[in-house]
Design a protein that fits this description.
Strand content: 5-15%
Shape: globular
Distance between the termini: 41 Å
Largest sheet: 3 strands, parallel
Strand order of the largest sheet: 1-2-3
Number of helices: 7
Order of helices and strands: HHHEHEEHHH
Amino acid sequence: ITRAWDPFDHPDRSEEKTAERICINETRARCVKLLRQEFGNSILAGFRHTEYAAKNYSDVLLRDDAVSEKENYLELLRRYPICVTTTGLHGSIGWKMGEYVAFSRAIVSEKLNYEVPGDFKEGQNFFGFDEPDQCVRMVDDLLSNTGLRFEMMKANHEYYLNYLKPDAMIRRTLKIGLRC
């Protein structure tokens, strides 16, 4: 479940930022198309229904936009053991990455542009891809190898307990603050 960014919604946006949004949208659309081709109805993938997405990406819209509502989304996270995420604006790591870790999911993600604190590693906590076809192969690897999927889910559970769980975040923040 993702969104398409309207690259033309602000007339003063730089050409570079417009191009970034177009590239993000195209990568996301290609991932959705390929995942749907490979896995059919067993996968939930698509753009949220917005005016821009409907006009430009009608073939990759969510079949039912209601699933994107927060209360439905959180329930869906419990049902799907493998989650895919792509790079956000400004090369960011999207919020979904943290949500996927918190739910101990196996993760396939575009390669990260930023460091994540602690022991969060490609190949351990997530599989990183450069191209949408790699994304499909990685999802297939996780689907076909239960042990590999379980180990990644376990690593993400451990990471959540040590770094993302609220009390762990506060404890780490206090330790850092008290060192100053």
